[in-house]
C-alpha cells in the first residue's frame, strides 16, 4: 500500500482514494447525500451497519470528532478494508465483525444509524435500532432494491418517525473518450430517513 | 423571523430551515454533492459566485473554520437572504453585492470557487477564476442548462484541468399522500469540477 | 375546439395535441414505453384502466386495428376528454364510466391490460385482471408511488408471471430560455409488466 | 440461429429477441421514445444513420409499410446483424454499408432521419441531412455524450427547426435477486429532435 497525500479531515474524499477490494462501495455522491441526511453533530454516536469499505463511517468520523463511530460489517474482507482505510485516513472507528442484528444486542445506544446493508434482515435491524436509538435520533437507510425501499419507508411511517424523507438519486458520470464526454450511469439509490421522537427541529418558522 | 433550534456547525442543514424568499435555492442533495466536489480544507478561501440564498456558502463556512468564504450575488434580494441566513446559522461570510465578473477583479486569490450562477457570463467568469485560483485549487460549476454544462466542460478540458468530473444528478423526493409516497422529481443538475495544476492528489496507489 | 391537422394513425402523437383539461396525462415518453411493454398485436383486445385523457388507449387503438380497446375511467371529466380525443384522432374506443374493479366484473376477457390508475384498489384490480386475462396475456402497471411499484411487483411475482419487468423512467425536457436550454424534470414513473402463462416468446435463442 | 416465435409487426420487440453480437444496441425503452419522436407516417421514407443492430430501423419499417427504411452502418459486423435481424423479423430494409456522410451524397430525399451514430462527423451529417430532408421532415438525434447533445441542439436551433425538443432519459431496470428487485441503471440518453419547415402541425388549438 503506497502512501497518498490526503490528510484533510473534511468532507469529500474522492472514491479512488479508498482501498476497495471487491466490496461494493457507496459512491461519493451517494455518500455525500447520506451524510447530509444523517444531520450529524460533533458529539454524535453513529452506527454504520453494513459498513462495506468504511467510506461513510470514515467521513462521519471526520465530523463527529467528540463523538464516536461504530462500523459493523459481517464480511471479513470488508473488515480488513475498513481497517486499511482507517489507517489511510487517520481515523479511529470502533470496528465490529459480525451480523448486524446480533451485534446490535451488544450496543447500548446511539444518536444516528445508517443502514447500508441488512443481509436480508432489514426489519429485525430497524426494530432493534428503533429500541436503542436515542430520542431525536436519526435513521438513514440506503436501499438499492424496491423491497428495501418499500420496507424502510413503511417501517418509518409505522413507527411514527418525524421528517420521513424518501429520496431517489440517479447519478451519471462523464467518462472522457477523446474529445467526447460519455455519460455513464451509476445504479439508482434510494435514501430513506426519519427522526425518532419529535425530530431535530422543534420550533421553526414556516 | 422566529428562532429555530439548529446550532450544529456540521453538514446537512435541511432546506426548510433556510430563509428562502423567491430566490432559487440549491437543494440539499445538490448542496451536499457540490460541497463534496469542492474537497474543502479547514483553511480554504472559498468563493461562491451566484450565492443565491447562501446555503452552499454557509455550509462551506462551517467546514472552513480557519479559512474564509466570500459570497457574491448580484440580486439585492439574494444579498438580504444571505445576511438573514448568516445570522440564523451563526456564520460570518464576506458578502459582496454585484456582478460576478466585475467583483472578481477586486479579489486577490482563492483556493476554491463554486459557480452557481453566471448571469450569461460563464466564460468571462471562468477565465477570471482561472487567473486568480491558486495552484491545486478547485473549480465547481453547477449547471442547469445544456449550454452551461457544455461550456464548463470544454473550459476545464481546454485549460488542462486535472480530475475533471462531469456529474449529472437526478433527484426525486417522496411526498406523502395518505398511505402513498408519490415521487416528485427535482430538475436535473450537472456538476462540473476540475483542479488547476497537478490536482489535489499527487501520489497515489491505483 | 379548433381542428388540427394530425391524421396519422401511427405512434407518437405529441402531448400538446390532446385535449387535456385538468386531468393528469401520461407524458408521451412514458406513453411510448408503456405501449412498447404492452407488446400489442393487431388483433389484441386491450383494457385501459384509469384511462385519464385516453392518450394510451388512442395510440393502442391505432395499432390494434383488428382488435378493440376498452377505456375505463371513473372521473366524469376524464370520460368527456376521452370522447373529445377519440373524435380528434378518429378512433373508436369502448369507453366505460365507473370504478375499475366494478367494471371489470362486466368484461369477459382480454389480451392486454394497462393500469394507469387504480383508485386505491390495486390489489382487487390486479386480481380481477388476472382472472380475466387470456393466457399469454400481458399486464402493464404505470406507478408513480413507491407503494404501487412494490405491490404490482409483488403481485406479478406471486402469480408466477413470466418476463416480469420493473422499469424506472426519469425524463427531463429542455425548455428554451433565450440561448439556453433549461432541463426540467418530469416526475419519475415506474412501469411494471408481466405475462400470464408461458409468456409471449416460447422458444428462443439465448 | 434458432427460430423464434415473434411474428407481430407491431411496436415493442423485446431487446433479447434481436441478434446482437458485440454491437451496442439501442435499448427498447429508448427505441420506443425515439420512434415516438420520429412521428412516422405509413408512407414515410426513413433514414437510420448508424443503425447498429437495426432495431430502430426494423420497428420503423413495421410502421412505414407504404414507405421505405434505409439503414446505414459503417461497421461490417453491424451490417450482418442488420441482415440477420431483418430475416428474423421479416422486414425489408435498404441496407447500405459505409460512412454516413459519404452515403448521404447518394440518397435523394427522405422524410425522417434518425442519427444513432455519427462517427465524429455529426455536423457534416446534420448539414447533409438538412439539405436532403423534405419540408416538414423530422430529424432525431440519439446522443450519449455531452458534446453530441450540445451540437445537435445548437444545429437545430441555428437551422430554425420547429418543435425542437431536447429530452434526457434515465432508465433503470429491475433485476431479480431471490426475493429482491435490484434496480440497475442504463446509461442516460439524450434525444434531440426538430422539424424542418413549418413543422408537422400547422394549425392547432392551444
Automatic annotation (TrEMBL), chains A, B, C, D:
Superkingdom: Bacteria
UniProtKB keywords: Cobalamin biosynthesis, Methyltransferase, S-adenosyl-L-methionine, Transferase
Pathway field: Cofactor biosynthesis; adenosylcobalamin biosynthesis
Molecular-function annotations in GO: protein methyltransferase activity
Pfam family, one: TRM5-TYW2_MTfase
GO biological process: cobalamin biosynthetic process; methylation
Claim: rRNA-binding is one of the keywords in the record: no
Segments forming domain TRM5/TYW2-like methyltransferase: 40-149
Database matches in InterPro entries: Cbl_synth_MTase_CbiT, Cobalamin_biosynth_MTase, SAM-dependent_MTases_sf, TRM5-TYW2-like_MTfase
Protein name: Precorrin-6Y C5,15-methyltransferase (Decarboxylating) subunit CbiT
Originating species: Geosporobacter ferrireducens
Upper taxonomic lineage: Bacteria, Bacillati, Bacillota, Clostridia, Peptostreptococcales
Amino acid at each position: 500500500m503506497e502512501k497518498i497525500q490526503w490528510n484533510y479531515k473534511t468532507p469529500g474524499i474522492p472514491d479512488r482514494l479508498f482501498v476497495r477490494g471487491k466490496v461494493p462501495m457507496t459512491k461519493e455522491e451517494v455518500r455525500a447525500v447520506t451524510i447530509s441526511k444523517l444531520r450529524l453533530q460533533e458529539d454524535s454516536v453513529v452506527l454504520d451497519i453494513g459498513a462495506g469499505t468504511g467510506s461513510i463511517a470514515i467521513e462521519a468520523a471526520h465530523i463527529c470528532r467528540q463523538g464516536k463511530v461504530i462500523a459493523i460489517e459481517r464480511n471479513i474482507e470488508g473488515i480488513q478494508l475498513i481497517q486499511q482505510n482507517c489507517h489511510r485516513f487517520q481515523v479511529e472507528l470502533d470496528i465490529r465483525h459480525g451480523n448486524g442484528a446480533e451485534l446490535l444486542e451488544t450496543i447500548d445506544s446511539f444518536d444516528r444509524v445508517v443502514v447500508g446493508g441488512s443481509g436480508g434482515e432489514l426489519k429485525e435491524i430497524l426494530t432493534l435500532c428503533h429500541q436503542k436509538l436515542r430520542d431525536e435520533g436519526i435513521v438513514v437507510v440506503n436501499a438499492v432494491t424496491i423491497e428495501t425501499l418499500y420496507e424502510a419507508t413503511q417501517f418509518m411511517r409505522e413507527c411514527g418517525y418525524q421528517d420521513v424523507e424518501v429520496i431517489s438519486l440517479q447519478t451519471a458520470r462523464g467518462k472522457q473518450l477523446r474529445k467526447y464526454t460519455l455519460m455513464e450511469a451509476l445504479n439508482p439509490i434510494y435514501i430513506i430517513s426519519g427522526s425518532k421522537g419529535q425530530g431535530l427541529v422543534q420550533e421553526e418558522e414556516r
